[in-house]
Amino acid sequence: MNPLIVNPISPLVRKLGYAGLIPFIGLALLVQLAPTPVNYLSAESLAGYGAVITSFMGALHWGANLHLLGKAPAGDRWEDRNAWIWGVIPALVAWVALHIYIPVGLLILASTLVIQRNIDQNTYQYYFSDEATRSAFMTMRNRLTYIAAGCLTWASLVILFIQA
Q: Quick check: 122 pLDDT over 60?
């Protein structure tokens, strides 16, 4: 995005979005650098936070479609059916990821965040009134997703190969 163009995403939304990376980065560092048992507690906490964010990203679809409840179906498969279904799948995957070996769960969460981003890239067209706002949001979303997924993956690799 051209820096001379005003970002249509409000500063509050940007600040909150990027602040959401603090636990990912901090906990991933603790997994690698903290002594035992703090490193294990950090891994559990990172998995929990990753599951919450993964679920939140799915729930965005429910929030975006709430205005359709009680109205006649739009005749659009995404708005009428698929957004509701897709909105709960990440929460279910995240829940499963919390019940398996932590490094594998972290990899599942990282993969789910990237898969969500790939799907949402195409589905967010239904939620934004203009292309500039959608594009600005996806720029932010890309950064957030890849940093979060990178932290989850890094922590998993540290547990599997460095701490093993």
A: yes
The two structure tokens encoding residue 151: 């932290």
End-to-end CA distance of the chain: 43
d(CA 79, CA 130): 18
66, amino acid identity = L
Q: DSSP of the chain, one letter per residue? A: --TTSPPSS-HHHHHHHHHTHHHHHHHHHHHHHSPTTHHHHHHHHHHHHHHHHHHHHHHHHHHHHGGGTTSPP-S-HIIIIIHHHHHHHHHHHHHHHTTS-HHHHHHHHHHHHHHHHHHHHHHGGGT-SSHHHHHHHHHHHHHHHHHHHHHHHHHHHIIIII--
Q: Residue range 73-91: average pLDDT?
A: 84
Non-local (6+) Cβ contacts of 106 within 8 A are 43, 46, 47, 50, 97, 152, 153, 155, 156, 159
State both tokens at 97: 């990821």
